[in-house]
Structure formats: structure tokens, C-alpha cells
Amino acid sequence: MKAKDTFDLFYECAGVCTDTRQIFIDCLFICLKGDNYDANEFALKALELGAKYVIVDDAKYVQNTRIIFVDDSLAYLQNLANYHRKKFNIPVIGITGSNGKTTSKELINAVLSTSYNTLATVGNLNNHIGVPLTLLRLDQHHELAIIEMGANKLYDIKELCDIAEPNLGIITNIGKAHLEGFGSFEGVLQTKKELYDSVTHSNGILFYNIDDEILSKNIPSAIQNLSYGNNSKAFVFGELIELNPFACLKWKHGNYESPIIETKMVGKYNFYNFLAAITFGIHFNIDPEKINEAISNYEPTNKRSQIVKTNYNTLILDCYNANPTSMRSAIESFSLIDHPNKVAIVGDMLELGQESVAEHKKVLELMKQFNIENITVGPIFNELSDNDAIYKVRDTNELLNILDENPIQNKLVLIKGSRGIGLEVLEKAL
User: In the chain, is it the N or the C terminus that has fewer CB atoms within a 10 Å radius of its CB?
Assistant: First the structure.
């Protein structure tokens, strides 16, 4: 069967599935392999559960005329997604960055969906499997697609751009994240810039933070670009008014100047995420009042800059992930919030390679500089002798035991760390 013929099987189906736990009637089930699983083994079972066709890349599992063999199931998924994407002549926005890409994606979608039928990445399905699955949800009703792109190593963004072919792009920022995979900060920069290269190739439009020296310096000169920031030269000019603890801002474009917008998000670092969404709104001719309403109404629920009020404390849950750049931003923003009783619970930052100890020391120095009481969680922080934290523990279980005997009350608590440390379990004890 030719590649096009196998791709056209998709259009006979009700959608694509790659997880045996989520098979639905008349889906196209694509058998993927991982380090600890081989979905080829479930080919027949997928048909029994309702799949219309099954794609395998191990010929011995072709035991039915509705089971189709291909050389590489993952490559098939990715090529199918690109084949499908080419059928749509719509704006496709690619979003990447070391920090803020998921929040920016959510805010951009909140603004654009006020006036357009949008497709956006669900959660953080932003990798070599998630991006194809998102694109395969495109249908004739969609007017815009917003595709988040994550990267752990060199050339990851190029791979995703080759699949999604974005014609608009934004890099939220470039920081020290996943250094083990990239090898260095320069590797991070090189990989993120692959989005710029792709959008330039499509003669599209780039959006960037004019206040970010790295981004400003690396914007290609031969392509249309729209800037945002606290700079009078920006296409969209913004001002952060206060953190109370929620961010309040105002913005200006042309002759329009917004009122002060009160958001439901904390953190100085989210200022630029708001401006990015506003800039996309202006580009797509959305009424400024609709933009303001979308920004003020958006409320995070994914442990990214999320405020949770418990019976005893107010929590800033920012523990979906962490790296040196996002940790510094979180701590600096926390220091700016006017509250009489504050404590930061910070967890180890993972995947930093040889820079790990040095970067953790910088975090401790920063908290000392801002005179922030802190509790540290994780083996890396635990090993640092100069840590004068209230408590210094190896894991969350140890801290939960301490909090059971010594509860924290009447405080504003920042909770920030890498996902692998599991700081979210502390919410119930605070």
C-alpha cells in the first residue's frame, strides 16, 4: 500500500489514538514503541476494542486485513500529521521557549478564541508525539492553530517545525533548561532558533519580546516581526502596574491605551506572557475590550502561577517545573509581593548536568539577598552546606512529617521546583 493510501485511511476513521487505554470506536490506532512497551502486541486487541484500522511496524502482528504494516509507526504518525496539516491554509502559530510557553499558549488561545475557532495544544502535549496528535485534530471548522513545541535536545524544534510548518512563531525566552540534553546554553539557543528559521522559510511573521536582549539580537532581519515589551519602540507597549499578589498591567498600541487590567495570575514573569497574547490579538484584529476581558478572566489551573487559598495559608503553586531562569523569576517576583509573612518552599531543579550545583547555589544566594525565609526539598539542595533554610529535607515525605508536627499558618507560600520533586503533594499539608 502506498504512503498516500495509508494516510487516506485516516479520513475513514473517527480520529487517531496511540494509547490502548483510550481507544474509541472507529479510530485509527497507531502502535508506538517505547523503552518499556510495544503497542504492536495490542494490534488485535485494538480492533476488538473498536479501532477501524491499526498501524504496526512489526510484520508478525499483521493478522488481519485491517492491520497495516509500515516501516516505522512513529514516522508514519508524524508524516500523516504533516500530510493532514498541508490541507489547511490557515495561520499556524508555533510557540516554544525555555519558560512560559504553556502559559503563553493558553493566554494566546484565550484571546484568539474570543473571535476565531481555534485549535490549541491540550496540556503540554508538545513533543514528537503530542504535536502530531494535535495537528490531526484539525478540521474544516478551525480558523487558527496554536501549537506548543517543547525540546529536550538539539534539533527537536526543527523536527516539530517540519511536521507543523508554522507560519507564525514566538519564542517566549531562552534560558537554562534541559542542559543535560542540549549540552550548553548555546545548544538551547540554537535549538529554539530553529523556530525562527522555519517561520522565515515560510515567509511568515515572528513575535518577540523587545526587552529580551537575546531574542532581539537573534530576530532575522529579512522577515516581518512584531514586538512587545516595556519599550516605546514596541508594537505593543506594556507597563506592569503592581503585584498584589496578582499582576496588574496596562498596554498601548497606536492610539489605543487600555485601562488597568487586573489579572488572576501572579508573577512579574507573566507580564510578558500577557503582552504576547495581546500582540497576537492586535495582529488578528480583535477588539481591544475583548482582549482585555480574555486576559483578566484567564485563571490558571495547572500549577503554573496558580493561587490556592487553604484554611491556613495562601499558596502560589508554581511547581509544574523549574529551571534556573524560571526559579530566579519566581523568587524575584515573590520578593516584590507586599505580604508580612512569606516563605518559599523550593525544590531541586533537575536535568542541569554539570551546572547543577552552581545553579542551586545561585538560588540560595538569591533568597538570601531578598531575605526570603525558605524550606528546601531535594538531594541537591540538601547537600549544600551553606543552606540556612528553616528546614532542609531530602524529599517531600520528610517535609510532610515535619509539617504534621510544625504546621505553617497565616503565610504566603511560594512552592517552586522541578516536577520530579513532586512538591504538589504539599498542598494538602498547607
Answer: N
